[in-house]
Amino acid sequence: MSCCAAGTESATELEALKTAGPSAEEMWLSSRPLGDGMRQVDLIVPGVHCGACIALLEKELPKTSGIDHARVNLSTRRVSVVFNEKAGVKTSGKTGAQISALTSENHAETVLTALGEKFKALGYPAHLPGGDEEGADPAFAELLKALAVAGFASMNVMLLSVSVWSGAEAATRDLFHWISALIAAPALIYSGRIFFRSAWGALSHGRANMDVPISLGVILAYAMSLYETITHGEHAYFDASVTLLFFLLAGRTLDHMMREKARSAVRNLVRLSPRGAMVIRDDGSRDYLALDEIEPGMRLAIAPGDRIPVDGRIVSGRSDMDFAVVNGESAPQLVEAGSLTPAGTLNLTGALVMEATRAARNSFLAEMVSMMEAAESGRAGYRRIADRASAIYAPAVHLLALGTFIGWMMVSGDWRMAMMTAVAVLIITCPCALGLAVPVVQVIAAGRLFENGIMVKDGSAMERLAQTDHVVFDKTGTLTRGQPQLINAASVAPDHLAIASRIARASRHPLSQALAAHDSAGGSLPELQVTEMPGDGVEAVSPAGDVYRLGRAAFALEGRDQGLGEAADASQVILSRNGAFMDVFLFSDQLRRGAVQAVARLNAMGIDAEILSGDRQAPVKALAAELGVSAYVAGVRPRGKVDRVKALAQAGGRPLMVGDGLNDAPALSAAHVSMAPASAADVGRMAADFVFLHESLEAVPLAIEVSRKAGSLIRQNFALAVIYNVVAVPIAVMGYATPLIAALAMSSSSVIVVLNSLRLRRKTRVENFARSTPGRIAAELITDAGPDTRLGTSA
Amino acid sequence: MSNLIYLIPIALFLGALGLAGFLWSMKSGQYDDLEGAAWRILDDDDDKPKPD
């Protein structure tokens, strides 16, 4: 076991443990060749925490034959393993390229199987990265480089400018201006192209964005200063143009960093859809094929614990299956030959053979995705607050500068003087503070949320969440845990519970897993021979010859009815010895932690809550009563959820959808803003704007509170920027602005905006629920995502 | 004034050196794993206590 893994797993990581790691075939499909017969596979290992973990993994993994080396990245919690795909061929001494080509995959398979087992033996559950959009982020690297160049140039130019302002004599001043021009030119071209490109893109579509006044201001300032320098003029704005770029790039980089961190955190969650499936050929041979290669009519072998790769029909076998992704309900259903199985559902107990009825590209999953795309109207109409501000700001600034130029031309007739004043107006009004106003607040707010285990996809999501006035909850898996809990643990005999939980450890059935959680490590129990009867239960034979059965009443009691009625709203499991009744265990889905508090806090904030569930009327009604929610609808199909959310939006509301299942995914994307727990289906997680990692539902009101505070700070920042302009613009228009005044005004307004934004760090207290043990790793995973996202931690 | 002829190039050169250093470190992946390095330095690898 690892240094610090025991007992600290979060809900998502327990999920990762349950899904039993990627198979060798999946690892092979996701690995990439490095040349020289080497291949690399990247795995996410959430359990890596410290130096001991790094040392252990990097030392132990290469001991598996065929593994060349392993490298741990602690920040992203990933391990890249480089292995030799021809390891087996080399040692066996066989020659011939054909043989090696044919067998390389098989040898790699043994290597990868050993690798998977090694991970398990070391106590670090590993899984494959979720999305396809992996690898380095070129846009971020470009921003950082541009920022570095702008920083270098602005520092040097500013240094020269300070000596000019301090009163350098004419010859020295000219020399310094020339040097500044030489430094600024390449910096403007290199760092400024990000803005120029975006401004050009907007202009060529007939729109104006914030980058238009920026680009215009920077270019005009440079051109005018160059003209001044050539004519031995006194005022040059080289420093202003480069510093401007530096400040603006800082805002851009922060904005980008925040989104990227959230995305990578989402990608690190467990992936729920398989990458391929084991195909049984007509001649009985088995092949592992990638998802795209599976055609209708092929027969597929599905082991217990596998997810169904494509829609199909069961040909043979009997098992319990988890249909949560389809109907959102956690109670497993029995499947037999002839049952239909949609893609993404989970096989729990027995081995199955199924026949694919549809290819992956038009399976149930794909259908949901297309329904989501169709529903994508919820946020399409939303324009970010910064865009709305610039739509007013940009034309105003341009008109002001133009007016200044015309005005001075009329008054003095000196075009050079008029131009210089107009440029000064452009620089003074350049939206430096405005460019920082939004991203700084959003980065700090995102840092706040990260600390509490909430990930934000982008800044506009936060703006939309601040507007929400109505919350729509899904039931199972969102308001409830979605996992059954033993509810009569106190009333059953302790030794019966001990036996039952020991037997239950062998099964993947959710009821068994709930029972197995009560297994104490005591070794007083005899060794049991456990066999699973798919669809019925588990049978265990003790060394003394006693047969214990755990499962459905008919199975455990061998058909004898001993007067046990079915519990009304709870699932039950019966333990028997040699067919004689021993005990009954009752299970029920429990409320998610903090659900009651969350609804109460939402009410206090003036936000209505309602429940939309695919479940039956009775349990939904009971839950609504328990939570004090009066509005609920039961038995809703995915389409119905979308329609309800859209109806709310059309009535002028701003609905927030909170849901987890695949059946919620279309509604998640149709809503104005959406949240999903980390345990949600892949598609749901991708569709949601916010993902919360912790068990507690209090994340919902907390996220709304932080978003609202962020919204008010952004408005304050805008107000500050406007006040600054009201003071500074008249000075510039009157022609009193010198480069020194411009530099001072620009920096001070930026600093004030940043300082005001930093107040958010103090304004929100860290919530207690996030600090409880079960979520510890998840909290670390996020706060450790990088020093930059931790802006808010050290308050 | 004559001091400037070599002082300014020196200042610019040193600045450029810093910039080049940053760009190099970014390109060679120095910032890929910010936390791992702090732990790795504590790892003594194969060091064993001296046998008696």
Structure notes:
The complex is a heterodimer of chains A (795) and B (52). Chain A is of the alpha+beta class and 795 residues long. Chain A folds into 5 domains: 11-122, Alpha-Beta Plaits (2-Layer Sandwich); 138-267 and 382-443 and 706-790, no CATH class; 276-372, Calcium-transporting ATPase, cytoplasmic transduction domain A (Distorted Sandwich), CATH 2.70.150.10; 447-482 and 592-705, HAD superfamily/HAD-like (Rossmann fold, 3-Layer(aba) Sandwich); 483-590, 3-Layer(aba) Sandwich (Calcium-transporting ATPase, cytoplasmic domain N). Chain A has 27 helices and 26 strands. In chain A, β18 (537-541) and β19 (547-551) form a beta hairpin. In chain A, α6 (138-165) packs antiparallel against α9. Chain B has one domain (2-40). Chain B has helices at 2-27, 36-40. Helix content of chain B is 60%, strand content 0%. By secondary structure, chain B is mainly alpha-helical. The mean pLDDT of chain B is 81. The longest helix of chain B is centred in the first third of the chain and has 26 residues, at 2-27. The radius of gyration of chain B is 21 Å and the shape is elongated. The chains are: A alpha+beta (795), B mainly alpha (52). The interface between A and B is medium-sized, with 26 and 21 residues.
